[in-house]
Amino acid sequence: MPDSAYILIVDDDQIALESGRNALSACHSVDTASSGAEALQKIACRTPDIVLLDVSMPEMDGYGVCRKLRENESLEGLPIIFVSALIDESERMKGFEAGGDDYLAKPIMPIELCRKVESILQWKQERAELKGNLGDAFRTAMTAMTAASEIGTVLHFLRNSFQAENYFSLGKGLIATLDAYGLKGSVQLRGRNGSLSMDQEGPCSPLQEAVLSNMASQGRIFEFSSHLSCSYERVTIIVTNIPREDPEKHGRMRDNLALLAEGVNARMEALDNSLHLSQLLQRTGEALRKLGDLHSRQSLDFVGIADEFNSRLNRLLLSLGLSGSQEEELLDLAEHFLRGVETLYLEGHSVEREIRSMLNHAPAESRP
Fold this sequence. Notes:
- The chain is of the alpha/beta class.
- The longest helix is centred in the last third of the chain and has 74 residues, at about 245-320.
- About 30% of the residues are buried.
- The two termini are about 40 Å apart.
- It is elongated and about 120 Å long.
- It has helices at about 15-25, 35-45, 60-70, 90-100, 110-145, 150-160, 165-180, 205-215, 245-320, 325-360, and strands spanning about 5-10, 30-35, 50-55, 80-85, 100-105, 185-190, 195-200, 200-205, 220-225, 225-230, 235-240.
């Protein structure tokens, strides 16, 4: 992340402009615009690192400015943070459809503004670093799938998904498949090990994550504007350029996305179960080891106790003054008792050997 970023604050409220400038100017270069038209003019002359964009402005509101910026391909990847006193679900959806990356609620505390800017700058850097790696993966997928039919692309992904060992590799394969179809979108994977949200550029923005999470509760297939959402328990896919102008292709894409989501959901369940089983085996191995160690210590204790018993019994017999028959009867009783205890000891020793054998033959990941 650069030490100093160029930040453009757009707001028709002069107090808000000055407040934002005062909060950020110590670490960054800050410029301001009091209208949407002025902001577009300044951005045409110099591209900022971040745009803080007020939603409620006369003539052209923040959503309109954002849409204008997103039409310019040279500004792809420019982070746009909406600033508004209205941040309910409908407003977030408007911001998402317009192409925004995050929301800040008015009034904004200076420390909150600084943290948000630093967070977005870090996110921008991570996207730039991952873009090259993901771009290579997408190009490889495109080359491999050029001659395949649409359903063949789904089968190709499902076959390769069995090689995915974690959420990230599974999500990357899904994004590469969307790219092979010429679709732009984002995905969210949810499992026992947390959640992962990503698109073709890398990690999703906070606003994208919020929309993906919201779409998970909107049913299996949900369409809004030019977007299509497909969700299962463990996965949500949102496509932002579903081909509505071609009804036949539109229908095929719906079906293919549903197949992809169902396959990812099944693989996520398998990954989670595998992780759970591995953890269970490890805990079982640890318990068996402790049980074996406990029995080893008890075996040593038994030998000591038996020796002590014999020694004390012999000393006691000398002091009791019993008759020969009484001593013989008492010794027989003691011998019978010790044989019974010895039998239990030998049975326990057999159990210990079985435990050691189980640990030696257990999978490597379950051994302590």
